[in-house]
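seq:
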Amino acid sequence: MPVTLFVENVTVLDYAYLRPDVRFAGDSLILTIELRGDLDQRGFIVDFGKLKPMVKHFVDSELDHRLLLPSRDRELIVEEIGGRVIVRYGNLTYEAPPTGVATLDAIAITHDTISRRIEQLVAPHLPSNVSALRCHLARDARAEQQASFAYTHGLRHHDGNCQRLLHGHRGVFVVIWDGIRDPELEAMLVTRFDGAHFASARDVSGDAVAYRAAQGDFTALLPGGRIVPLSVEPTIENIAHFAFDELVRANNLDGRRLMVRAYEGPNKGAMFSLPSATAE
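struct:
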């Protein structure tokens, strides 16, 4: 008799995607998978120990930390010239190595269309006793329960795929003022940074961001007003520090009584406070 096996929190997919209203956005989604099938002679549908790393491999190698493109959006233009991909979407232009993007057979990039693509990647590698595979993508509870901010960045010095200029995350801010959480200050940061592309000021020229990283040359011409230039590299550590300084400056706060915690997707991030600030 068929049984359903489920695996929650298989991995987190951090990515950027094209969105008609704002041209591009970032997001972070948690993957859960379900398999339906008959038990093998060991009493398994699939061995957990082999299933999770296999699925994570396909997500990481094919989708994670890329700009996801919907091939059936008629406004999208994609060319490959000299080993580089050039993406044009309205007033957005992005040039990158092929590994900087992933194309999905879809009209729009949604949780469902990404889930279907993961199923297509994984299904051929499952044993014959598996009769159905279903993937589910959702934001973490923290991002659903409070105001969140979607952003993109690229880290030229990162050893891995974070060096891709247009990849994204969805996070939240937790702000502690005088030892008490302050939702108003959190909302101020979300309003300020939702939709931002954080970049090092040295890589910015007008509405363009460009740099050379180990994976190749990356260039993006972004819609006006989206770039937030930092005097340092746009890591989550520096974003947390920058958010702290913005609150102090805009509200004339005593920084010794403030702490800012910035999440880069679920369960990771950075915090900044002065030595005498009260921790969360």
